[in-house]
Amino acid sequence: MKNDIIRIPEEEMERQRGFADAFAALPRRPETYYIVTYGCQMNAHDSEKLAGILDRMGLRPAPDKREADFVLHNTCCIRDNAERKALGNVTWLKELRKERPDLLIGVCGCMVQEPGMAEKLIKQYPFVDLAFGTGNLHELPELLLRCVESGRRVVSVPENESTLAEGVPIRRASSLTGYLTIMYGCNNFCTYCIVPHVRGRERSRSSRDILREAEELRRQGFREIMLLGQNVNSYGSGTGDLSFPQLLDECASLGFERIRFMTSHPKDLSDDLIRVMADRPNIMRHFHLPVQSGSNAVLEAMNRRYTREKYLERLRALRAAMPDIGVTTDLIVAFPGETERDFEDTLSLTDEACFDSAFTFIYSPRVGTKAASMPGQVDPDTAKARIERLIAVQEKNTARVFSSLIGQTVKVLVTDRSRRGGGEVTGKCERNISVNFPGDGEDIGRILPVKITAASHTTLKGEAARE
Ligand code: SAH
Ligand code: SF4
Ligand code: F3S
Q1: pLDDT for res 88
Q2: pLDDT of 370 higher than 60
Q3: Is the CB of 366 under 6 A from ligand 1?
Q4: How many angstroms does the Cα of residue 392 sit away from the middle of ligand 1?
Q5: Pick the CATH number of 174-284 from 3.20.20.100, 3.30.750.210, 3.90.1300.10, 1.10.10.10
Q6: Which ligand minimizes its atom distance to the CA of 112?
Q7: Which residues neighbour 399 within 8 Å (Cβ) at sequence distance 6 or greater?
Q8: CATH 3.30.750.200 fits 290-402, yes or no
Q9: Which of 99, 101, 189, 441 lies 20 to 30 A from 344 at CA?
């Protein structure tokens, strides 16, 4: 596939800053905003950018959406239920507007980029004031200014999906972990997946821009960075820039205590990457490696371009180099044509791979994807029965992994007080498992050794080894 990326010129970014200033100077305008975020880390990070832009426009974050003048829903459409949830919550705002007629309602993100969605919003959601896609997020100052000045609806979804914007302001949600996008979009076209259709073609940022941002995060005191992309392993392909292992190695040399990345495609997991990870103790011992299915026939129909055997071989290579690595995965059941035998292959792979945890999904047909029109769509009852059996196998494995950690001492980056309160704090260990242990607010931001004493379904419990 051709690599024809258009970097948005600095003049255009400057023009947007001009709109932001003009908006801030309006005598009557929304003063506060609230962003509701759905979907993956990519969207979470986009929301940090949206917040950064809105701050730049002179708005302030509201503590609750009921109090905000402008509510923006940053949507996801990966599965039908994600989309329904977003649309349902947007519709609920109609009620809020009865009490607050000035409320401004915005929708953005992946769902807006779906084919036909802009028209649907215009016709069926007349209370939506502003809609834009993932590809024109940087135009928010211009679009919101136009919307507020004219008092009319603005719906703008870009056709050109190959652009890349640098220099968008960011309001980071955490002061410990910094998200850092290394690439946008995806070229893989897994047959079930809407992402390439709504996020566009794969575009890698230049390593210079990425490393500059990483250095800035380091100066600001971030302890951890998370490199983001739909398929980070193919970073830089076709650009002559660094490869992903090289980029990761450069990031690891900047002095962060922790480096993570998401997501990797098994077909591109190279020995070079494994070597860099093994050599760098500050690259965390966690690998999210979505397998989707354990059946070669289904993997082929999904266009995943690896086999079950190849996947398990990559897993062995990872574990041989880093015996303490935790592997997590994504699994889809009831893909069109999946037979009971195919499904049993997924069960046996799941058992053999012994993942720390897995996200399990029932296949959801997405308009415009190849799989949506494949024969052999599986009925909902069978799908439900399969996902329950799969979850049972994974729960058994999670318990197996977690109990093997009891008695070990792991390093935890403390990020919050525990939700259950009671003088506990929480954070992630290197394997990315949540660990709760007695502590107080003083511990937040520290990396502490914690001896694991017990495990629940989803978290570990321990005691900090304090001097
Ligand atoms: N880029 C990432 C994942 C993106 S979506 C990757 O390739 O791994 C996250 C997960 O959602 C996928 O791994 C897949 O398991 C699931 N998913 C994507 N499309 C889906 C669909 N149509 N139905 C059900 N699950 C889906
Ligand atoms: Fe979707 Fe496949 Fe791309 Fe992941 S690699 S975003 S599953 S098309
Ligand atoms: Fe992420 Fe959902 Fe978009 S998973 S890329 S927010 S469709």
Answers
A1: 95
A2: yes
A3: yes
A4: 21
A5: 3.30.750.210
A6: 3
A7: 455, 457
A8: yes
A9: 189
pLDDT of residue 4: 62
pTM of the predicted protein model: 0.95
> Can you list the positions of beta strands (E) in 379-446?
409-417, 424-429, 434-438
User: What percent helix, strand, coil does the chain show, rounded to 5?
Assistant: 40, 20, 35
Q: Rounded to the nearest 5 degrees, what angle is found at the Cα of 48, between the Cα atoms of 187 and 31?
A: 135
- Which residue has its alpha carbon closest to ligand 1 atom 11? 78
Task: Give the binding-site residues of ligand 3, using a 6 Å CB cut-off.
Answer: 39-40, 42-43, 76-78, 110, 194-195, 198-199
Ligand nearest to the CA of 360: 1
What is the third-level CATH fold of 409-464?
A: OB fold (Dihydrolipoamide Acetyltransferase, E2P) (2.40.50)
pLDDT for 1 equals: 41
Give domain 6-163's CATH superfamily: Methylthiotransferase, N-terminal domain (3.40.50.12160)
Q: What is the pLDDT of residues 111-134, one digit of tens each?
A: 999 989 999 999 999 999 999 999
Per-residue tokens: 108: 């953005």
- Assigned token pair, 80: 């039908």
> What is the H or E stretch that residue 288 is in?
strand 286-288
pLDDT in tens, 64-114: 999 999 999 999 999 999 999 999 999 999 999 999 999 999 999 999 999
Whether 174-284 and 290-402 share one fold: the answer is yes
pLDDT, tens digit, for every residue of 254-280?
A: 999 999 999 999 999 999 999 999 999
Any idea where the domains of the chain sit in the sequence? 6-163, 174-284, 290-402, 409-464
Provide the token pair at 201. Answer: 């073609």
Specify the pairing of strand 326-333 against strand 357-362: parallel
- pLDDT (tens digit, 9 = 90+) per residue, 299-341? 999 999 999 999 999 999 999 999 999 999 999 999 999 999 9
